[in-house]
Write a structure and sequence with these properties.
13 strands, alpha/beta, 408 residues
Length: 408
Amino acid sequence: MSTPSSPAAAVRRASLDGVLAYAWDAEVFTASDAMSAVGLTRSTTIDVIEELVGIGLLTELPNARSVGDYRKGRPARRFELRADAAVVVGTDVGPDHITTAVADLRGRMLTLEHTDTDLDHDSPEQRRAAATAAVDDALRAAGRRRSDVLALCAGVPAPVDATGASPPHRNGFWRRMNPDLAELFGAWVPLVRVSNDASLAAVAEGSVGAAAGVSDYVTILSGEFLGAGAVVDGNLLRGAHGGVAEMVAFDHVAGVDDAGGLIGRIGVWASEDAPATPPSTIAPDGRAVLADARRGDPHAQSVVARAGRVLGIITGVFGSLFDPRRVVLSGMTAEDAADLVRAARASLPRELDLPAPELVASTLGVDVVCIGAVSAALEAGRTGVLDLGARWAGSRTMAAGDPVATTA
């Protein structure tokens, strides 16, 4: 379908958008159901449904009589979204890992694959090859082909602008992390988005996580580095270069001093402050220190309290800048996040003059960026599929009865 070029075409497109949006959220429905929900005439509703069936987005089910729901009169025709008509892909292309998920058009996860990457081999060419291989492997695991993909979203640890590009960085890190992934995947995926990883964590938390139903919140993503995504008045903020909430600002905040992740800090501090003599030259894993703190180890508890004070300062700064109702700590296990949130809450009221935001722990775990990428890819598919025209609607993946692929 092309962009409407006349009032009649615009009306037709609005009707298609309305019925498709209804069908995407509904289960099985009839023309009468859609007509009531969208506010169209019966003839227009039936005509639009037929068109959506024709391009493969809807499927007609056996009528009411055949499923025992018929009482009198002509049995109603029943329809539903073809959830298996295509797939969406979400991938978290991190500095040392790639996590990739494939989901159907209802957002149901078909596979979730994890790959470790070598930090010593992060040239643009190597990262492009690794990202491609990860997506192909995930599609193969889901039994789907490249031609089945409607939309893909990739998350990267770098600012990303509206075109999917990252700005230059003093040591080239951002463009190594995002080596033109929009162009790479755009060569074969109809709809592609590339986003900052922390922004996608915010998408995940707002869609299915700790910020669902909240219109003003900040998500703090703690991995190897800290990142943040800010939602104000229901809108995810990006900025001219994708740099809203870029954490380099904390290089200049006393008590935080850099953008290193919380787990890494805990490991380093535990080693530096260890009572053992001589001290170990190898920093313990921060997650192990958190586990020791839960078991009552005094040294580990003091280190976790120190990390909590850092989190409290960060939350206070974001509270002053964006006035969020909630701040979500994500990117780690729910148990570890909960421990750090508890440690931070005591100091938070001293960090700002505005009412302190509610600081909560994410329950989405370490896959939060990938979950957000799937949600963003699904939204791209929902809003963009009718603009694709013959590029997708006429493809073999949309043909009725097209078998699910078993090879990539």
